[in-house]
Amino acid sequence: MRDSGRTSADDAVERDLDVAWELFAAQPTHPEVAELALRVLAVQPERSSVSLLLANHREVCGQADEARRLYLQVAGRNDRQFVNAARSLRHLALAERDHAEALRWARTVLGEDHEEWRDWMELGYAEALCGEHEDGWRRLDEAVALCARTAPDELPNALGQRAAYLLGTFAPPDRFVPTAEEAIRADAANSWVALMLGWSYLVQYRFAEAEQLGLRLLREDPTEDLLQNLVGTARTMLRIVENAHAQDITLEDIRRTGVIELGWRQLRDQALGADLASALAALDEVMPADLRATLRPGVPIAEVPGSDKLGSAVAEDLVAWRDGQRPGSGATWGWAEPFRLMSAAEIVAMSAGIEADPAAHPDWPENEVWEQVMTDDAGAHLVVVALGALVKRRPGHPDEPVAASMADWIWDRVAEFGGPDPRPARPAAEQ
Predict the structure, then answer these.
(1) Closest by CA position to 109, among listed 142, 82, 79
(2) CATH topology of domain 9-186
(3) Is the model's pLDDT at 50 over the cut of 50?
(4) pLDDT digits (tens, 9 = 90+) for 370-406
(5) Which CATH number does 276-430 carry?
(6) How far is Cα 255 from Cα 251, in angstroms, rounded to an integer?
């Protein structure tokens, strides 16, 4: 029997709302979600929960600006849905990599509700993204402890989230590994954390453990390239260790090259969308016309004569993107010094010359890792060295640090040209 205070119109509204929520849960991008929500709001525009449902739908459909407008509209009412609107605005800011805005809303949420462990986890993540690394990482630990006390059934989720957030804020492997191991003990099916744990083992020179973990993961997903690469790298390093004396190679020699650490950072940056390929794609979107006009079309590496002398994947990525830049045009980058991209032919020719007469090139030692990628056409170069750092090398002078990596240098240009910068703030140890 119908409640005497309700009408058939009220029943129709509630039916629409129930269907909208059910449909959103099953197919969040379905256009009927918006139709149903708007139908309810036409009758009851004050229902903030329905506005939030519509905003969630807009967000997952990629309509971020409209979602933000609706979230802010609900937040402005300062009613019982305020904290949920603030959480949604925090989520949207993180998705758009607006770290400062995410931190502001994370603090706003905790001004309303101190009981939810996820809110503390999000605050720690936002703090670390903004450069407050030690405070943020400590907050992640506190969120896990709060979850263990108040929602023990959710602890595996909290442990996995902490590991992912440590990785996403450039925590060093020594800090990430114990948390990842704890997360895997709680949830062995968390394959993404397990993969990053395996690469962390490599960075710690725990090659046998990396191999065993990789093999376990491959049994579950035998076609995953990253897992095959993990196992292959671990086995290669084990063979080098076993044959160290015969090959006159030591672990210290391997550490000096920084090749494993570089591989770890490249994989991590790729997972975060902050790698060189992502930076070059972002640069294409905001590049000034005068810079674009000086760049040559890219070439496939397979078509580059002597490509084995290009060095690591950094030069290969750059050449595939743009095969160098017109001589004398370095000023178009708008940087402090007029360095321009080198072409594949220039890199190969220079490397061959150094290899043919090392004594004539004392600034380019044989026993170190380096690859020249830019030149000022006056004898100086920007060079990628061990651990992927970008330095300026001038004849007769010590190398001068320029950026943590070539990707960082490109991201700096993207930001200066007005594009979005997705990078978390780096810890001091990584600068």
Answers:
(1) 82
(2) 1.25.40
(3) yes
(4) 899 999 999 999 999 877 899 999 999 999 999 999 9
(5) 3.40.1580.10
(6) 6
